[in-house]
Amino acid sequence: MRQRLHIDGLEARRLLNGAALSILFIRGAERSGGFLEATGDFQRTEQLADINNTATSNNNHGWATLATALRGEGYTVTQVVEPLESGAPGTGQTQGAALNLAQLNLNQYDAVVFGSNNAVYDSAAADVVEAYVRGGGGVLFISDANFGSDWRDASRSDQPFLSRFGLTVHQDNATYVLERSRGEFAAPNHPVLRGINSFDGEGVTPFQIGTPPSGVLLTRLAIAEQTIVLNNGTSSANQFRGTSRAAGSNDASLVAGTADDGRLIGHFDRNTFFNLNGAGTNITRFDNRAFALNVFDYLTDNEPPALATSDYSESTRRITLRFDDRLEGTLQRNVVKIRNRQTLELLPRSSWSMDVNESGDSTIGTINLRSAPVGRYRVEIEPFSLTDDANNTRGREIRFNFTVGLTTQSSASVSREQLIQTPALPTAGGFSDELIDDDTSPVGVLA
After folding, report:
1. Gap between the Cα atoms of 44 and 53, Å rounded
2. Which structural domains are found in the chain, ordered by start?
3. Which of 177-181, 242-246, 385-389 has the lowest mean pLDDT?
């Protein structure tokens, strides 16, 4: 039977280059949510995190503020609602039916959010989503008990898709805040966590990282805490509540991955993105709003390439620069300079070589110093010279400070969290956001 799709759109705002990035949110069917809390039909639907739910009353479950924030960043935001199941009752709890994802043509969207979907999807639907991601699309998975009619519904709905990428989603349980200062960010330099110190959830649904299939790379961005409840319940008597265990090293509250040319994220809670005064928490608390925008910038590859980590080894006279995206051959020797910071003279190109390796979702540039007098130096990469695989160009200069031969320290790595940032200063042709060390060791400094 041909499905009639209920689609809600928000007014598009165009990006400066004239192209709007498009996001599709998938919502559960009318009256299909709220099994833990809803007492009537309105509440069963209100629990489904609708992007048009603008309520700011206490304990609301709307995502309109998130949608508005995305519009403000230039995205087009669209929502599609799962249809009612065949023979659905006129009132009361419903189960919903699967969307025909092939009919939706996911390729017209830059990212798809599997939000309050709770219908059961088959392997053909999983084929569609896997092909979409591997072909360059982005997918966000968020589950919650109140997205369904029992403990298992929402997680079971996402699982056919997640299995294609080596992930398992658990059941709703626990409440906590993830903080950088407590070491709870497992990959603190990842673009999704850039500028983020904390985010939270209430009634969270973490993920378990398994063995990824070919072409998939998974990164645990933030740990999971407390008790994990598996989605393995078999009894309707307890509404299919699963068994529990302690959180382990393969569990994640936040996980990101790449699959061939596309990206995916699993996030542990819907509440992070609720409107003001939302149930449990909301988008205005902690760094939740900035975190949300980072999530979608990453999924749509809507950010200029950045230097993620850097390292200088005095023992090997080798500089390693790792960027957070594929640079499509734009990291070349002719856009790189090495300058003496005291004399401002350039180090002759004959005294150093550079190798570039692009793989997965990163680019690594390795500079080998053949000869360099003792002194303090700076690697400079010209502004507007680096472009990633989504045609995002970095407009700022990159600078990396290192020191040759002034101490006996052999090597060190530097992360952004260990450095002090100075205000951006104008430079010829662009801007510098240089990070400065104390010049007492050969430790490099990234910008």
Report:
1. 13
2. 6-299 (3.40.50.880), 307-436 (2.60.40.1220)
3. 385-389
